Amino acid sequence: MHSPPLPATQDVVLIGGGHTHALFLLKWGMKPLPGARLTVINPGPTAPYSGMLPGFVAGHYTREELDIDLVRLARFAGARVILGAAEHLDPEAREVHVTGRPPIVFDLASVDVGITSQMPGMPGFAEHGIPAKPLGPFAQSWQEFREGTGPVNIAVIGGGVAGAELVLAMAYALKLRGRLGIATLIDSGPVLGQATPRLRKQMLRAFSEHRVSLVENAEIARVEADRILLTDGRSVLADFTTGAAGARPHDWLSQSGLALQDGFIQVGETLQSSDPAIFATGDCAHLSHAPRPKAGVYAVRQAPVLFHNMRALLTGDPLRRYQPQQDYLKLISLGSQEALGDRFGQQFAGPLVWRWKDRIDRNFMEKFRELPKMEPAELPPEHTDDLPDALGEKPMCGGCGAKAGRLALRAALADLPPSQRADIESLPGDDAAVLRIGEARQVISTDHLRAFTQDPYLMARIAAVHALGDIWAMGATPQAATANLILPRLSPKVQERTLREIMQGASQVFQEAGAEIVGGHTSLGDELSIGFTVTGLCSDRPITLAGAQAGDHLILTKPIGSGVLMAAEMAGEAQGADVAAALTLMCQAQGKAATILRGANAMTDVTGFGLTGHLLGICEASDLGAQLDMSAIPQMPGAAALSDAGTRSSLFKDNLALAPELAGMPAVSLLFDPQTAGGLLAAVSPDQVELLIQELRDNGYQAACIGQLASGPPSISLL
User: Fold this and answer.
1) pLDDT at position 135
2) Are 26 and 572 a contacting pair, CB within 8 Å?
3) CATH 3.90.650.10 in the chain, residues?
4) Positive/negative CA dihedral, 703, 709, 713, 716
5) How is domain 10-115+249-328 classified at the CATH fold level?
6) Which residues is 707 bridged to in the sheet?
7) Residues forming beta bridges with residue 97, ordered by sequence position
8) What percentage of the chain's residues is helix, strand, coil (to nearest 5)?
9) Which CATH architecture has domain 125-243?
């Protein structure tokens, strides 16, 4: 008997992608809790590992080696990932407010957002300084600065161990490139004032080796673009100024209503805050029962306790206590591939210590690189012979990758009788229809998508943009929409939350397009599917697939590659940053582009049949051939590499059958990649191309001229 999916009944939300939460996601993927829907919120698709930051700064690690890919990790855990910065936590309403989207409701939450080294009280730092934490923005800024040219000066504010590691790594990287001018470590007291005499002696030797100057017992008056002014009148030259002075909590935590200690969330032995439904871990938490300094080792060791206790609250099991160790091994990078070890007051240094630290760090990161592969469910012992062929070698894609092929649709539609109504205009192969209502023309179309992201709000926005594509492609003004939703089984409260997110996300898109949602229908099924029937009004003749002229140039308003990226993301093979970029492009509405291209001779949107399939639609309706310039076709980041490696969407083979003459050519696979919420493809007069592309780019579109049309049979060739 078929077992339906179990309904989600509780929302568990992880706020921040710190080390504890990353390990939590890893454990959850190995042992998910039926009935719990997991969400992780983080400003970006990756989370840097603090243990490898000095090595990255020095140039020993690449950015990819530094980062934990939260998008990929969330897919493994079966969690939805929301890429945005948390700005408020409301314990009473059980809501997390995230910039740019409606609040996320939770039943249980955990906060692991780290700390900041921002210094708002220091004049000029906000304009000219780069805080060392959060790590992600700092790593990006340093990478760009490090790869520049010419001699430069650097300064680090904060003479603790973190600041010392940072300035040594920065000085080493610039010295290696022949760019180091002056490197300075500044502190309001003695540098490494809390360190043991032996540790300080070892670090002073490293400062001397890497030409780092110390400015101690100094007060800073102001940070400027190329220098730091001290209150005693001295100045320190610095083209790159960073701050590693102390640990500050994020300001928004102070408005949460939770019990705080110096701005950090107070937690007890079970890692629960003053609200038992909200946990906190890592640097943003203060261990009331056993205060400890801010260090990543504590965050790592909190993960098993957090994982157990959040599940225990949902299952009714006893909670565990977290008791931090009294001391821990400190491994301090010395710029070059040498490190200093310290524990219980004993020090040991040299290349061997670096290799030891390197092995520890790489072993930690390897947990997130080689995620266990989840085996597909086994088929029943008895089944039809051709069932494996029908299932294919991989799960069915979402979005347009889950659609039926163009040839199958064409065959099915061929059997339909011609329209008998005089108020329906017959169009040559367009997805939308034109209805005459008196003197007015109304365009009507429908589309729906099988979900490929577990974020209902984001999925609704993409589905709305996708459904409006046919309206925009015909030059119509969006008017109204009705929703057609299939929801997975959910408890009543989770169902209400999900519907609210869907309708808020979709409504924003339609209202921005000038349309309104006027109704709809919902039903329950095995998985989420979102669709809309949309209408638009045409004041002039609609733009159709027919009407293109020989010599017209082809303009594409969006890069291609969403199908292969979503297929790779499902398999855990895509980079999180590439997935995030693709989702952002899929959310990009085409209303402004349609207005700019309103004078096109023919136009369509590029969706499920891929660039080739939709271009063939124009060729067949206009009785023309097309020539494509592969080098000019914009591609989403990461798509070409995945395609070259053999990643394919479910609909790829059907699309390939549309133009088999291109199949044997090198590097053309993306031409057959099904697109979700893709760009507009317009045939325009040659004398308009440059002006139109410039206007499109001025409005934020990655538009390009990708080829032209010529007399000849309907076909596609490559220039």
Assistant:
1) 86
2) no
3) 545-719
4) negative
5) FAD/NAD(P)-binding domain (3.50.50)
6) 554, 628
7) 88
8) 35, 25, 40
9) 3-Layer(bba) Sandwich (3.50)
From the candidates 284, 400, 619, 705, which is the catalytic residue? 400
pLDDT digits (tens, 9 = 90+) for 157-166: 998 888 999 9
Distance from C-alpha of 550 to C-alpha of 542, rounded to nearest angstrom: 20
Alpha helix (H) residue ranges in 103-194: 125-128, 135-146, 161-176
DSSP codes of every residue in 477-507: EEEEEEEEEEEEPB-HHHHHHHHHHHHHHHH
Q: Are 41 and 104 in contact (CB under 8 A)?
A: yes
- Long-range pairs for 658-664 at CB < 8 Å and ≥24 separation? 658/406, 658/407, 658/609, 658/610, 658/612, 658/613, 658/616, 659/612, 659/613, 659/616, 659/715, 659/716, 661/715, 662/612, 662/716, 662/718
- Within 8 A by CB and 6+ apart from 21, the residues are 14, 40, 110, 112, 281
CATH of domain 545-719: 3.90.650.10
| The residue to which tokens 């260090």 are assigned | 295
Chain centre to alpha carbon of residue 677: 17
Contact 74, 81 (CB under 8 A): yes
Q: What is d(CA 278, CA 269) in angstroms, rounded to the nearest whole number?
A: 13
Q: What is the pTM of this model?
A: 0.91
What's residue 1's pLDDT?
40
Domain with CATH 3.30.1330.10 in the chain: 431-543
Integer Cα distance of 472 and 257 in angstroms? 47
One-letter amino acid identity for 41?
A: I
**Alpha-carbon distance 236 to 328, whole Å?**
35
The owner of tokens 């400015």 is 215
Written as six digits, the tokens of 303 are 């993960």
Which residues of the chain fall below pLDDT 50?
1-2
400 is catalytic: yes
**Cα–Cα distance measured from residue 198 to residue 348, given in angstroms and rounded to the nearest whole number:** 10
* Total H helices, total E strands in the chain: 21, 36
How high is the pLDDT of residue 104? 97
Q: How many whole angstroms separate alpha carbon 333 and alpha carbon 593? A: 51
**Spatial distance between the Cα atoms of 289 and 308, rounded to a whole number of angstroms:** 19
For the stretch 614-634, pLDDT in tens is: 999 999 999 999 999 999 999
Strand partners, 229: 222, 235
User: Residue type at 583?
Assistant: L
**Total residue length of the chain:** 719
Please state, in angstroms and rounded to a whole number, the distance separating the CA atoms of residues 523 and 537: 29
Residues 6+ apart with CB under 8 A from 196: 342, 345, 347
Residue 417's Cβ-count burial label (10 Å; 0-12, 13-18, 19+) is exposed
pLDDT digits (tens, 9 = 90+) for 233-250: 999 999 999 988 767 889
Distances, alpha carbon 103 to alpha carbons 99, 453, 501, 588, in Å: 9, 18, 9, 22
Of 238, 43, 49, 243, give the one whose Cα is nearest residue 145: 238
Closest by CA position to 591, among listed 478, 432, 681: 478
CA dihedral 199, 205, 206, 207 (to 10 degrees): 110
Q: How do strand 336-343 and strand 330-334 relate by DSSP bridges?
A: antiparallel
As a whole number of angstroms, the distance between CA 332 and CA 204 comes to 13
Q: What is the CATH T-level fold of the domain 431-543, as seen in this structure?
A: 60s Ribosomal Protein L30; Chain: A; (3.30.1330)
